Amino acid sequence: MTWGDSFDYALNGDVLHAVVIDAMGHGLDAATMATVAIGAYRHARRAGIGLSEIYDFTDRAVAEQFGPEHFATAQMMQLDTTTGRVQWVNAGHPPPVLARNHRVAGRLAAPTTLPVGLGGAEPRISELGLERGDRVLCFTDGPVEEHRTGGEEFGEDQLIDCVNHLERTGRGVRAVTHTLKRARGGRTTEDATLLMVEWRG
């Protein structure tokens, strides 16, 4: 089955740009919406505009193509690789996880705006100064809502446990996806996209 998750990243000079998208629904419609959202995001990013304007451009592109009641959640991020200053806009997405000193230090909880396509107001840009070695994990709702055998969700606590284990062992983010797949007996019921950014200073 085709799903609606997608991501994009690019390093322009000293600024790393990253986005994670989760389009509503399943099948070809969701995949098409995710493609439009990513295309709009890339176009806006290449124009060199700020996060608020990137959100607005992506929001309008999805609304114009798909009409009302269709949307995609998004996590848009910019990291200054020189200073470690990270800025992000949360458009209806789960808050990212911050890993510091080889353990989860918390979630980057911040004000959210409406998902793209719903005509949200100008978003509030959140900021944080990263420390050397910090990792920020962005993810769609799939890793949390994935159902365990018998109907139980994988859940946020288990996701954080996976990230803590990843930090202790020094393994890459792919280890989290492998854990998800093993917990489902090799079959998944949800799309699950994870994107980890590390600032090495």
TrEMBL record:
KW NADP (keyword) present: no
InterPro entries in UniProt: Bact_Sigma-Reg, PPM-type-like_dom_sf, PPM-type_phosphatase-like_dom
Group of enzyme by EC: hydrolase
Keyword vocabulary terms for this entry: Hydrolase
EC number(s) on file: 3.1.3.3
Domain of life where this protein originates: Bacteria
Signal peptide: none
Domain PPM-type phosphatase, chain residue ranges per copy: 4-199
MF (Gene Ontology): hydrolase activity
PANTHER family the UniProt entry points to: STAGE II SPORULATION PROTEIN E, STAGE II SPORULATION PROTEIN E-RELATED
Name of the protein in question: Phosphoserine phosphatase RsbP
Species whose genome carries this gene: Streptomyces cyanogenus
UniProt lineage: Bacteria, Bacillati, Actinomycetota, Actinomycetes, Kitasatosporales
